[in-house]
Amino acid sequence: MVTAVSFTLNGTAVAAVAEPAETLLSVLRHRLGDTSPKAGCLQGTCGACTVLLDGEPVLSCLLLADAAEGRRVETVRGLADGPTLHPLQEAFMDRFAAQCGFCTPGMIMAAKALLDRNPNPTREEVIEAISGNVCRCTGYLPIIEAILEAARRLAARR
Amino acid sequence: MAKHRGRGVASVNYPIGMNLGGDPSQALVHATPTGKFVVTLSSIDLGQGMKSVTRQLAAETLGVPIEDVHVDTGDSDTGPHCMGSFASRGTHRAGNAVVAAAREAKEVLLEVAAEELEVDPRDLELDGRGNVRVKGAPARALSVRDVAQAAHFKRGKSISGRGMFLVPPSDVDPDTGAMRPVTTYAHACMIVDVEVDDETGEVRVLSIKAAYEIGRALNIGLVEQQLVGGAWMGISHALFETVEPYYPDRAHGPTDFNGYLMPGPGDMCPVEIEIIERPALDGPYGAKGIGEMCATPPIPAIANAIEDAIGVRITEMPFTPEKILRALDAKRAGR
Amino acid sequence: MRIRKELFADERDDDLAIVGKPVRRQDIEGHVTGRTTFFDDRLVPGLLHIRCVRSTHDHARIRAIDTREAERVPGVRRILRWADLPKKAHNILTIFNFGIDDEPALADGKVRYRGEPIVAIVAESLRAADEAVAKVRVDYDPLPAVFDVEEALKPDAPLVNEYIGRNWFRYWGDYDCQQIRFGDVEAAFRQADVIVEGRYQMSPIEHAPLETQGCIVVPGEDGRFTVYTCTQGLHFSLDNTAAQLRLDTNRLHFIGGTVGGGFGGKVDTVVEPLAVLAAMLTGRPVRYVFTRAEEMQVSSPRGAERVYITDGVTRDGRILARKIVHYHDAGAYSRLSTYGTIKSAAHHPGPYWIPNVWVDSFCVFTNRTPSSAMRGFGVTGGDFALESQMDAVARAIGMDPLELRIKNAYRDGDMKAHRKLTEGAALIECIQVAAELARWPLSEEARSASSRIGGGGDRGRVPPTPPARTRLSDRGEGERGRETSRIDAAERPSARATTPPPSWLRSEARAVEARAVEDGARRAAEGGEGRRREEQEPPEPPRPASGHGALRFSSVFGSRRR
Ligand code: FES
Ligand code: FES
After folding, report:
1. What are the structural domain ranges in chain C?
2. φ and ψ of C231, to 5 deg
3. What distance in angstroms lies between residue C243's CA and the mean position of ligand 2's atoms?
4. pLDDT in tens, chain B (335 residues)
5. Which residue of chain A comes nearest to C292, CA vs CA?
6. DSSP secondary structure of C51-95
């Protein structure tokens, strides 16, 4: 009954078995051991499971693993360049943009998708980009600031 | 049909720790052979920053750099008892235990250093950069690492400390209610500006300005996290949240985040806060707790602001558009 | 964010090296790299999963549970029932000798709220567990349910919880509520220029942590069980799990401390006991995690509260008396509500010095999801009421709401209603700073007020307090079919104005009121203050009317529930 699925996870080719109708989130967490995407609702309403599929943010709790076949999956685990953290990660640390940290992986991936296609977003664009991600702790303001800060830092690097 | 602005206030206090006391916390601190420190707890970090404030408290008390301290928590086999993370008790109760444990460990550290340097331990101090030195003669110093090495491998001493903090339990007089609920209170006053749309019944919070008296801000970054996050939750409680929208009728209970409404990132208003510190006599460096009180004042402040804006008082939470429109209808009908 | 160091400067030193600094969180790198390990990030091979069959009724007797079909679902390893529980009912505070064991972990033949777990399916996969849940047949015999706290106190209300024996919790042996008595509110109401009444209602609120509650239990080789959990009280949950399973505490090893948000919702210890039991009975590791829908409707919320406040106020803004009746909706089981009710009584009358205070704080049982602690437990609902009421008072006498608060704010040395002296007060300073931030004009008097000046003295003494006991007596204690209830106030006149008594007490209240009127007339004849009372339909609670015609402001009548 199980099927095989293969894709690139954070730059590495991976293959896993999956049950029929198994979600990408489940395959990432339970079959591949990447527990960075979180299961906040499994209903598609919280964004904690956000990963990038060919650069686009998707809710991995709603996406069947098959849909990732042959494609590029990115999670927050793969964001750092060796020991060097991504500017988004640095900014989240400096700006106190995480409390419990449960929303953080999804939040950062949603933000990464934004900055990859729009390196210089307005505050409104940042808000729009994370509007599918629930955070119960921070009141969002530090997250918005962190993303804007990361954009500035990325711009300074270029 | 128009939008109306209003301003509302609320001033509150908050009891720190479990009501009636009797809620202990313990901490252990020990040095590794190389002079780093581990704080062992069973206290819970649920986002409020338990691991971080206790780390700062230990580093401050020990007099060592923050990087030299690690907080290990959440294992019932190794972590001594802590009642738990609730009732705004973590900073106050566990914090006090950590300070006590760090003090005891520091005493041993200084004793060993005194033996090594052949001075009186009372003449020693830590420089905050990882060295023990003689007061007034900074050239006579030893690194904490060297002291720890000496303690472990030469003198057979454990640089460690135990800390315990308990507010003794209070009785309650059933007739009068005479009791000692807690030992210290935090305080706040909040002023909220809102805009109420009398056509849709929607309320938008435009700004929050507040003062919080919290005893001592142990980490101003963590304080701001709590106060901003709490303000958001307060707004959310005031305007959106309930699992029983028609309480006491059980119908229409939400089961997901589409039905259970909360303000999104675009709904959050600017928050301006100033901190007052009136140290608690029994708090760690005077600190109280802020985790809970910050979610409270927005609720009545918003209710008061709504009345200021449109002249109706909403007395049932949450202040949904439906309730506001019904109240406006009632007012127009002269009820 | 600025610290106003000039305030209380003589009480704070400023020589700390690390405390106060915005040091990065110790856990932050784990959070931003996704390496932080929450309980559900433990990857344990060979897990069994739990799902519960939950009541579809608010209140019903269970005639039969048919699990035969469910047992045949492939992958189902065990079905747990009430009979499997080592301890048949439990409350998490009884390990501290407080409260009553009143809640079975699985239904005991009756369900008392919608969503109550009846049997637990333990299966190889969540899919198998869900399939089996759908195949369990429960035959219910529905019972009348009660949802409103005041309805629940009626003598003919259905009894929610037989372990408790009545629909409210009795404190300290036989007190029907946690009461505060300080001074003589009735006498003070007669002195007041204005009486302001309010009724405030908070509905149940969900903690909604992004991580739903759950645990993973792994049987060890040494007869111990390791429990990875998101509890907010590690040893508290360990001790409670052991108590429920009648295990020695050292057979449990709890690992947690890193939690995806709690807000008070992860204290109740509802998942660990069933999961450990399942692991004991199957010898396998077990995972039990709430779905988001369970978290929303089945996990305990912040309980609903209803608060009635009556204030007696002078025209120049002194609150002479405050009388509060506070109903806490515990839902079907106590959980922590018995504790929160006391805390809420202790919190009244708010951060103000009020010379006459009366509080009746009731813990009431209804047929809804049991409520429990949430951020601000025992305080949030009260503060909503108190601070709304402060504005109602300000409006009633035409006073600036901040000036009113400063005027009545507690100061060092003031006696609180629970009879402890105020120390370290700072409400006035908070108001002053907030007013400054918002450019809210304050009078010179308000700007120069201080928490350290003006308190104590007469304000530091406990006033003469007539004894008054509020009783909701139920004849035939703890039995079904209680027939009469009454406030046992006849011999204690000051218990008269429990404000306002539930509607079912109206006839008694009227009788009591009539007596009070006679009383007043007699006292008037003797030269004391008489009482005048406007007739009102429907008969409402005894009202603290004053001899000199106090104005009355009330939100009580304008806000009947839908
Ligand atoms: S877990 Fe996927 S949206 Fe919540
Ligand atoms: S930090 Fe806890 S949910 Fe966002």
Report:
1. 41-143+208-297, 150-202+301-401+464-561
2. -60, 155
3. 33
4. 799 999 999 999 999 999 999 999 999 999 999 999 999 999 999 999 999 999 999 999 999 999 999 999 999 999 999 999 999 999 999 999 999 999 999 999 999 999 999 999 999 999 999 999 999 998 999 999 999 999 999 999 999 999 999 999 999 999 999 999 999 999 999 999 999 999 999 999 999 999 999 999 999 999 999 999 999 999 999 999 999 999 999 999 999 999 999 999 999 999 999 999 999 999 999 999 999 999 999 999 999 999 999 999 999 999 999 999 999 999 999 86
5. A41
6. EEEE-SSSSEEEEEEE-HHHHTSTTEEEEE-GGG-SSS-B-TTGG
Active site residues of B: 292
Please name the residue ranges forming H helices in C466-534.
Answer: 506-525
- Reading the block at residue C559, the tokens are 């806000």
**B56, B248 contact by CB (below 8 A):** no
Q: Relative to the CA of A134, which ligand 1 atom is closest? A: 4
Q: How far apart are CA C542 and CA C499, in angstroms?
A: 7
* pLDDT tens figures, A81-122: 999 999 999 999 999 999 999 999 999 999 999 999 999 999
Closest CA to B148 of B29, B61, B318: B29
**Interface with B, mutate which of A137, A145, A148 (most B CBs under 10 A):** A137
Any atom of ligand 1 within 6 Å of the Cβ of A61: yes
Residue A37 with chain C: CB contacts under 8 Å: 34
- Backbone phi, psi, residue A142, to 5°: -65, -25
Q: How far apart are CA C279 and CA C281, in angstroms?
A: 5
Q: Select the CATH number that applies to the domain covering C150-202+301-401+464-561 from these four: 3.40.50.720, 3.30.365.10, 3.40.50.1820, 3.40.50.300.
A: 3.30.365.10
Work out the number of other CB atoms within 10 angstroms of the CB of residue C219. 17
Domains along the sequence of chain A with CATH:
3-78 (3.10.20.30), 87-157 (1.10.150.120)
Mutation site, B56, B224, B262, B268, interface A, largest A CB count within 10 A: B268
The upper half-sphere exposure of residue A59, i.e. CA atoms within 13 Å in the direction of its Cβ, equals 16
Q: For residue C532, which amino acid is it? A: R
- Tokens for A56? 């686009």
Does ligand 1 come within 6 angstroms of the Cβ of A48? yes
Q: Go through the domains of chain B in sequence order and give each one's CATH number.
A: 3-16+182-332 (3.30.365.10), 22-166 (3.30.365.10)
Q: A101 touching B, CB under 8 A?
A: yes
Task: Kindly list the protein residues whose Cβ atom lies closer than 6 A to any atom of ligand 2.
Answer: A 98-103, 135-138; B 47; C 210, 261
- Are A105 and C34 within 8 A, CB to CB? yes
ipTM value, please give it: 0.98
Beta strand B69-73 with B203-213 is unpaired
Global pTM reads 0.92
Residues of B in contact with C554 (CB under 8 A): none
pLDDT score, position C553: 62
User: For B73-95, b where at least 16 C-beta lie within 10 A, e where not — what string?
Assistant: bbbbeebbbbbbbbbbbbbbbbb
The CATH number of C41-143+208-297 is 3.90.1170.50
Any residues with CB less than 8 A from the CB of C259 and at least 6 apart, and which? A100, B44, B45, B46, B47, B85, C38, C209, C211, C230, C231, C232, C266
SS3 C171: strand
Report how far ligand 1's centroid is from the alpha carbon of C210 (Å): 10
Q: Collapsing DSSP states into helix, strand and coil, what is residue C450?
A: coil
> Which pair of structure tokens corresponds to residue C344?
């809420």
Q: Are C89 and C104 in contact (CB under 8 A)?
A: yes
Mean pLDDT (chain C) is: 88
Contact C442, C403 (CB under 8 A): yes
